[in-house]
Amino acid sequence: MGKNIKISIPHELSPAEVKQRLVEALADARAKHPDLLRDAHETWSNDNEMHFTGHAMGQRITGSVEIKPGQVHATIILPLLLAMFAAKLKPRIEAEGQKLFEG
What we know:
Number of strands: 5
Number of helices: 4
Shape: globular
Strand content: 35-45%
Distance between the termini: 38 Å
Oligomer: single chain
């Protein structure tokens, strides 16, 4: 069985600013790591909700990001093979998210 990583990151930004920063961060990550993110895709179901998919180590990773006033909620669904890395990934993702949404 896989593992879900759930993260909530506080922010003091408008929802539009949060979305803009997410879009820019994804574009920057693709430019810096094209080999790792070549098959990563995200879709926005509305201005405040993104769904994504990608692959790591031949395994499919999916998840979603929801922008709320004062909080960004993310869920990352790791397959069984990658579930063992969840405990190490969560704090790194939280730290990067906090940097991304700082004032």
